[in-house]
Write a structure and sequence with these properties.
493 residues; alpha+beta; Alpha-Beta Plaits; Chitinase A, domain 3; Trigger factor, domain 2; 3 domains; five-stranded antiparallel beta sheet; EC 5.2.1.8; Trigger factor; cell cycle; peptidyl-prolyl cis-trans isomerase activity; Trigger_fact/SurA_dom_sf
């Protein structure tokens, strides 16, 4: 077998592989000899079929199998012998001419194919001793814990039916049908809907018009959807809602005590406060982690400048750009609404894609040299978390992970990168700094702390890779078109 390099330009490589027809024929004859005693052909005793006849009957199919095996196995072996790692699966090209293909299968012509790929660039790791990180830490006060516990208590508040008129803080249970231009619209109808007046859950003006209603009342409410309402067919339009009030209920007093805790499935009020404190610590810890990671990535980005494989950058960019356009479509906005143009946005996201790829390669190299590994237990826990997000589809998701090698890799990659960050935190200079909650939550966008935080569209990739965590929120679940406010305002149903 001849292996000839025909292109070595930057990271691009092209390899021509030639396997002489004689070698292919020899391999075929070995296979024929192996099957000679196994095949059964009418007119011949077992093991007595002439090789020439076997070749006539099975030759082409055996040669086709050989060709498939070669193009499946040889690229890996060739790259290994050259000491190269391909950025993506090498492209394989072979003759498409039928006559030439027939000659190859008949062992009358050399078998040739070409490998085209980009190599991963060599990365010479640099000392991380110069990296300095400020880790923002917030002290959680008892007052903040009590405020959150009170919110939990209010969400579990009970209501008692009352006969009088509805007032703010009362809960109204109702049926409604929303109409635009006299026609009911999709998502605008509900039965038994519960709404606490004054909660601000529904679009402006809706709740105000329910103040004073009583059980059994029928009322037509007229409102105008916000101009930036997610459903484009409703944004900025006037709508009416035919409302039938089923019940008006007054809120009971809220008390933070053991009884409330038991109602929530806990032993005591102290245990409730402990859990709430832990949740707050987790939320702040996540923000702290994001900011720390951002600083590490920014400094690594300054330290490493090298050519990145165009195939990886293009794949990353395509993923980002697809998500950007999906976000724009869902929000009903344009690039102009975001004070940019499509051309500028593309350039910014291409830069972001290149940064992500470069940092991913650097972190991969650091992790490999440090012996960072992802255990099977960690993989199983991550897959279980995926299953929890899609109840009822567990079987299909597990099958997807089994059948798609890339799916498991997409789960492993962020775990690996987080472990690399953990490793780096043991080697770099980290200084803790006490900050207020407001300082920790402050949006650093536009301050230059991370180049990619300057957004050209409403949201970057919702499921962004771990190597580029910037504190982005996953897209909020879709809510009914009416009469609730837009999903981005975070109203809970």
């Amino acid at each position: 077998m001849q292996v000839i390099e025909t292109l070595a330009e930057g990271l691009k490589r092209e390899i021509k592989v030639v396997i002489p027809a004689k070698d292919m024929e020899n391999k075929m004859n070995e296979r024929l000899a192996d099957v000679k005693d196994k095949v059964r052909i009418n007119g011949f005793r077992p093991g007595k079929v002439p090789v020439a006849h076997l070749k006539k009957v099975y030759g082409k199919s055996i040669m086709a199998d050989l060709v498939n095996e070669i193009v499946r196995e040889q690229p890996t072996q060739i790259l290994s012998s050259r000491g190269e790692k391909s950025a993506t699966q090498p492209e394989i090209a072979m003759t498409e001419d039928k006559d030439e293909a027939d000659k190859i299968l008949a062992a009358e012509q050399d078998f040739e194919f070409t490998l085209s790929y980009e190599v991963l660039p060599p990365i010479e790791l640099k000392s991380v001793q110069g990296i300095k990180i400020t880790r923002e830490v917030v002290d959680i006060s008892d007052e903040e814990v009590n405020e959150q516990v009170l919110k939990v208590a209010e969400s579990a508040r009970s209501y008692e039916t009352k006969k009088g008129k509805a007032a703010n803080d009362d809960r109204v249970t109702m049926d409604y049908v929303g109409k635009v231009d006299g026609e009911a619209f999709e998502g605008g109808t509900d039965q038994g809907a519960e709404l606490v007046l004054g909660s601000g859950r529904f679009i402006p003006g809706f709740e105000d018009q329910l103040v004073g209603v009583k059980a059994g009342d029928e009322k037509i409410i007229t409102v105008t959807f916000p101009a930036d309402y997610p459903a484009k067919n409703l944004a900025g339009k006037e709508a009416t809602f035919d409302v039938t009030v089923k019940e008006v209920a007054a809120p009971a007093d809220v008390e933070i005590n053991d009884e409330l805790a038991k109602k929530l499935g806990l032993d005591s009020a102290d245990r409730l406060k402990e859990i709430v404190r832990g949740q707050i610590e987790s939320q702040y810890g996540s923000l702290t982690r994001q900011k720390v990671k951002r600083q590490i990535l920014d400094q690594l980005d300054e330290m490493y400048k090298f050519e990145t494989p165009k195939s990886l950058v293009e794949a990353e960019y395509n993923g980002i750009w697809s998500q950007v356009n999906n976000d724009l479509a869902q929000s009903g906005k344009t690039f102009e609404d975001e004070d940019t143009t499509e051309e500028k946005a593309k350039e910014e996201y291409k830069t972001l894609a290149e940064r992500r790829v470069r940092l991913g390669l650097v972190l991969s190299e650091i992790g490999e040299k440090a012996g960072v590994e992802v255990s099977e237990d960690e993989m199983q826990r991550a897959i279980y978390e995926q299953l929890r997000q899609y109840p009822g589809q567990e079987k299909q998701i597990l099958e997807f992970f089994r059948s798609q090698p890339g799916a498991a890799a997409s789960i492993r990659a962020p775990i690996f990168e987080e472990k690399v960050i953990d490793h780096l935190l043991t080697e770099i200079d980290v200084t803790d700094k006490k900050v207020t909650k407001e300082e920790l939550l402050a949006d650093e966008e536009g301050e230059g702390s991370a180049k990619e935080t300057k957004k050209a569209a409403p949201k970057k990739k919702a499921a962004a890779k771990a190597e580029d965590s910037e504190g982005e929120e996953a897209a909020a679940p879709k809510k009914k078109a009416a009469p609730k406010k837009k999903a981005s305002e975070g109203d809970a149903e």
